[in-house]
Amino acid sequence: MRFYQFIANGTRRVGVETAQGQITDLTSIEPRLQRTNDLFNAAVITGSSADEVASGVLQRGGGSTVSYESLSGGNSSLLPPIDAPEVWAFGVTYMDSMRERQAESGTPDVYAKVYNAERPEAFFKATGERVQPPFSEVGIRGDSSWDVPEPELAFAIFNGKIVGYTAGNDMSSRTIEGENPLYLPQAKVYNQSVSFGPCLVTTESIGDPQALDVSLTIERGGQQVFNGTANTSSMKRDCAYLADWLQRHNSVPDATVVLTGTGTIPPADFTLTDGDVVSISIENIGTLVNTVVTV
């Protein structure tokens, strides 16, 4: 199933896509369900899945519906599809990513070592309060002159297991990371530096997470200035591997979201500017859209 979070009539709602472009408001049927986190909590308690919990609610009937189009306008009420208390990320998981990091860095060997090592590169990306909703603004740093979005498959962890997938935008300063790899936190962690959505697709519905097409499109002034594609089959380390490493000697809270790295990076002569519109599409998930601002 595909789950969404949004605001309707001034209150938080959780919905499930029951027809193409149509979302049934589960909260209108069961008021105790106000977040996707509530669905996964109920699944843990009942020993079932979020899909089974949602199906049980839908069987009661009578739920209101809303169109996805109505949630994706200029005054969007769409929220991130899960309330993540923490967002983590992995880097150098694609060969192309390793090569780009080497090209930008004065110490290129470190990236080859990471790519070929058993232990992956993991870093803390954001707290939940820093996550930007779909159709909102994502930031580029005012002290950076070379900035890119990074389109990434992301997964959510609940009760120690992967429970769903979404599309993520890991905004990044190549200026800062290229200057020194030890500056990675400043290149990655800053105001409005991450967004994910538009929905969370459960593990039962995603298909093979290691065989998904990922595309990145950037528009400027209504004109396309970059388009690139990748496939998650090119990941050096799969999602299960990354989830395992993240939780070794490191307990993460339920609903933590994890970005898995990018295989699509704009060329060296490209940098984002204010007003650019970034669209990240992932097969079986949907399209995450954000507008760029300087922060």
Structure write-up:
The protein has 295 residues and is an alpha+beta fold. The protein has 2 domains: 2-79, no CATH class; 86-294, Fumarylacetoacetase-like, C-terminal domain (Fumarylacetoacetate hydrolase, domain 2). The chain has helices at 36-46, 50-58, 68-71, 95-104, 109-116, 174-179, 184-188, 239-246; strands at residues 2-8, 11-19, 22-25, 65-67, 78-79, 86-91, 121-127, 131-132, 137-140, 147-148, 151-158, 161-170, 172-173, 194-202, 213-220, 223-231, 256-259, 277-282, 286-294. The strands form 3 sheets. Strands 1, 2, 3, 4, 5, 6, 7, 8, 11, 12, 14 and 17 form a 12-stranded mixed β-sheet that branches. A 5-stranded mixed β-sheet has the order 9-19-18-15-16, with no helix packed on it. A hairpin with a 3-residue loop joins strand 18 and strand 19 (286-294). The radius of gyration is 19 Å and the shape is globular.
Blueprint of the fold:
Elements (H helix, E strand, L loop, with lengths): L1 E7 L2 E9 L2 E4 L10 H11 L3 H9 L6 E3 H4 L6 E2 L6 E6 L3 H10 L4 H8 L4 E7 L3 E2 L4 E4 L6 E2 L2 E8 L2 E10 L1 E2 H6 L4 H5 L5 E9 L10 E8 L2 E9 L7 H8 L9 E4 L17 E6 L3 E9 L1
Parallel strand pairs: 6-17, 8-14, 9-19
Antiparallel strand pairs: 1-2, 1-5, 1-14, 2-3, 3-4, 6-7, 10-13, 11-12, 11-17, 12-14, 15-16, 15-18, 18-19
Helix pairs in contact: 1-2, 4-5
What does the main sheet amount to?
Answer: 12 strands, mixed
**Uncertain spans:** none
Any idea of the CATH class of the largest domain?
Alpha Beta
Topology-level CATH name of the largest domain: Fumarylacetoacetate hydrolase, domain 2
Q: What proportion of the residues form beta strands (DSSP E)?
A: 35-45%
User: Any idea how many domains?
Assistant: 2
The H/E string reads EEEHHEHEEHHEEEEEEEHHEEEHEEE
Helix content: 10-25%
- CATH structural architecture of the largest domain: Alpha-Beta Complex
Using the CA coordinates, give the radius of gyration: 19 Å
Distance between the termini: 35 Å
